[in-house]
């Protein structure tokens, strides 16, 4: 992977870096970054294990405890971090939750909780990180969306709508900030083996696996490898793209 024209990330920020996809991204990014900051909400032990792995890769690890159900306080925390940290030139906007329910059973509380984390706090991360990058005239952001933004499956209306919003943000931010040497792309994972799927009954999992041409769920490292590519100069002309990584499920 090549980094020469741009230089390795000085400081990468990964929201939701304590587990799953975010943890895999943070550990891989540590091999090319000077510092890697991860946010977590409850998983303090896992977050400190990820921090150890970041240090093993030779990068400085920064842990930020933050509850993204409160976009206002997350914004204040992020402001303080961006002020203290020096240039943050790579952001993986990854933290997200799912509250699956059939359309007629979904509640306003579920809608609000999912949108607070996946949309409002993502927007806060995007706008504050991007403003900071504009000052530096450089930066890259990867939003972790989902195939649920455009694939239709029962129970996923609220989650899918939240990820569709993230897709729209990706295109608009890329359009408006591309000329300022800032690239913003999104990855739309299919089903990836993480705790997010822990509550999915085996029968439902088997049903989805039958719909995946590669007949298996992906691993967090599949997403992290694409994040590494997007961080590198090999992705220099990629901006505003929504990249599916789903074993062919959306084909
Ligand atoms: P996990 O549930 O394994 O991890 C979620 C991460 O987000 C954790 O670090 C968690 O912190 C953090 N987080 C969750 N809620 C909050 C909150 N309210 N405030 C702060 N942090 C929070 O999820 P995945 O790794 O599977 O998913 C990562 C992203 O990928 C999400 O945006 C998800 O929607 C998306 N995605 C996942 C797919 C999958 O199949 N796994 C498929 C498509 C998209 P803590 O550990 O402290 O709770």
Automatic annotation (TrEMBL):
<dbReference type="GO" id="GO:0016491">
    <property type="term" value="F:oxidoreductase activity"/>
</dbReference>
<comment type="similarity">
    <text>Belongs to the short-chain dehydrogenases/reductases (SDR) family.</text>
</comment>
<dbReference type="InterPro" id="IPR057326">
    <property type="entry name" value="KR_dom"/>
</dbReference>
<dbReference type="InterPro" id="IPR036291">
    <property type="entry name" value="NAD(P)-bd_dom_sf"/>
</dbReference>
<protein>
    <submittedName>
        <fullName>3-oxoacyl-ACP reductase FabG</fullName>
    </submittedName>
</protein>
<dbReference type="InterPro" id="IPR050259">
    <property type="entry name" value="SDR"/>
</dbReference>
<keyword id="KW-0560">Oxidoreductase</keyword>
<dbReference type="GO" id="GO:0008206">
    <property type="term" value="P:bile acid metabolic process"/>
</dbReference>
<dbReference type="InterPro" id="IPR020904">
    <property type="entry name" value="Sc_DH/Rdtase_CS"/>
</dbReference>
<dbReference type="InterPro" id="IPR002347">
    <property type="entry name" value="SDR_fam"/>
</dbReference>
<feature type="domain" description="Ketoreductase">
    <location>
        <begin position="10"/>
        <end position="190"/>
    </location>
</feature>
<dbReference type="Pfam" id="PF13561">
    <property type="entry name" value="adh_short_C2"/>
</dbReference>
